[in-house]
Amino acid sequence: MGTGNSPCASCKLLRRRCAKDCVFAPYFPSDDPHKFAIVHKVFGASNVSKMLQEIPVHQRADAVSSLVYEANARGRDPVYGCVGAISCLQNQVAQLQMQLAVAEAEILCIQMQQRQDQHIPNLATTTTHDPLLQIHHDDKSYFLQNNLPQLLTFTSPNTNVIYDSFKKESLYGHDMVS
User: Fold this and answer.
1) Which 8-state DSSP code applies to residue 4?
2) Residue 160 pLDDT > 50, yes or no?
3) How wide is the angle at C-alpha 93 spanned by C-alphas 87 and 98, nearest 5°?
4) Per DSSP, what are the bridge partners of residue 175?
5) CA distances (Å), origin 146, targets 104, 124, 141
6) Distance between CA atoms of 115 and 101, rounded to whole angstroms?
7) Whether pLDDT at 159 is above 60
8) What angle do CA 73, 83, 175 make, to 5 degrees?
9) Contact assessment for residue 51 and residue 67, using Cβ atoms and an 8 Å cutoff
10) In b/e form, how buried is each residue of 111-133, taking b as 16+ CB within 10 angstroms?
11) Residue 57 φ/ψ, nearest 5 degrees
12) Which of 56, 58, 124, 127 is most buried, by CB atoms within 10 Å?
């Protein structure tokens, strides 16, 4: 039974009498009818009831929370639900990691250039026979001139293609999702 004598949100929506052992009452209070309405619209009351009865009592609140989250996600994105949101977030993480790598590479280049600029006068005046230690005033860092432009010329992932990995084919070989 819901709070006081009023039926829970599910029994109120389904227009039935709320029993004392109502499986919905602890999770769908009468003061929040939208919570059950969205879950009922996506999953159906019978399916939700079956799911809740199969889950141990101590895990039911978490299950209801997940059902509400998924139902809300399905309302925003009827095809992919929360998987679409997760995919978007994963793409954002990948883009941010790439931006971080570029920034770290730029910092490394600046640090190497500063170190080289500090050592050029000292090493240029000394003569050595080791070709690795011979640096001329006109030379820039080999890494900066030759290797870094190749490392930094990569393209960012196409943000327009978010759901390609979710495409499925029907039995006839046609895309079911496009």
Assistant:
1) T
2) no
3) 130
4) 169
5) 18, 21, 8
6) 21
7) no
8) 110
9) yes
10) eeeeebeeeeeeeeeeeeeeeee
11) -55, -40
12) 124
pTM over 0.85: no
Average pLDDT over residues 163-168: 43
Amino acid identity of residue 128, one-letter, is T
DSSP class of residue 169 equals: B
- Compute the distance between CA of residue 145 and CA of residue 143 in angstroms, rounded to an integer: 6
Q: What angle do CA 13, 14, 18 make, to 5 degrees?
A: 95
Other CB atoms within 10 Å distance of the CB of residue 7: 21
pLDDT tens digits for range 83-139 = 998 999 999 999 999 999 999 999 999 999 998 888 765 544 555 555 554 544 444
**More confident position, 10 or 148:** 10
Contacts of 79 (CB under 8 A, 6+ apart): 177
Query: Per the structure block, which two tokens stand in for 12?
Result: 């109120």
87 Cβ contact partners less than 8 Å away, ≥ 6 residues apart: 80, 162, 163, 165, 166
Angstrom distances, CA of residue 113 to CA of 28, 117, 139, 140, 151: 63, 6, 11, 8, 17
CA neighbor of 71 nearest in space, from 96, 44, 107, 32: 44
